[in-house]
Amino acid sequence: MSCARIAAASVCAFISQCGPSLAQWSASGGLLNVSITKSCSETSGNIATSKSDGLFLCPTRISLVESQVNGASHFYIVHAYGLLAIRNNSERLADCWAAHQLANAPNGLHYIKQWITHWSNYGVTQSTFGTPAQRIANVRSCCACGI
User: CB 3.0 to 4.6 Å from 123: which of 65, 72, 85, 132, for a disulfide?
Assistant: First the structure.
């Protein structure tokens, strides 16, 4: 198994420890080659971030979000992959990409709902997303999944 596939498998295993034992989205295609590093100092307080040299996860932040709303961290990780997939720094487009990906993944709607619950309760207004209500509306519109 290639190093990239091992890394992708370890991220999936890490994510599954945080949420219910439901099937969930996992990287495919070129995203399997993304290097994954656990480094809270690289994520600037976020669960995950992507940079030109790969994806960075903050296990401490994942644990915190999971303690607040079980399963919510999955959307944030898919969003970080989205920034790499769309090759654009638009947070709104990455939200859309994540919403589309999860809408078509096994139990993906569960993770979108959990993220919406988390963002409703803990989200803050940011220049890149707007208000929590605006970000949630964007994700709902993008997934076109009726939630």
Answer: 132
Kindly state the DSSP code that residue 126 receives in the 8-state scheme: B
Q: Give me 65's structure tokens.
A: 């979000």
Three-state secondary-structure class, residue 109: helix
Torsion angle in degrees (nearest 10) through CA of 61, 107, 8, 42: -20
Give the ranges where 19-106 is alpha helix by DSSP (H): 40-43, 59-68, 73-86, 91-103
Render pLDDT for 122-134 as a digit per residue (tens, 0 to 9). Answer: 998 888 888 999 9
CA 27 and chain centroid, separation = 11
Find residue 55's DSSP bridge partners: 36, 50
Place of tokens 């080659």: 33
DSSP string, 88-101: S--HHHHHHHHHHH
Whose tokens are 């198994």? That residue is 1
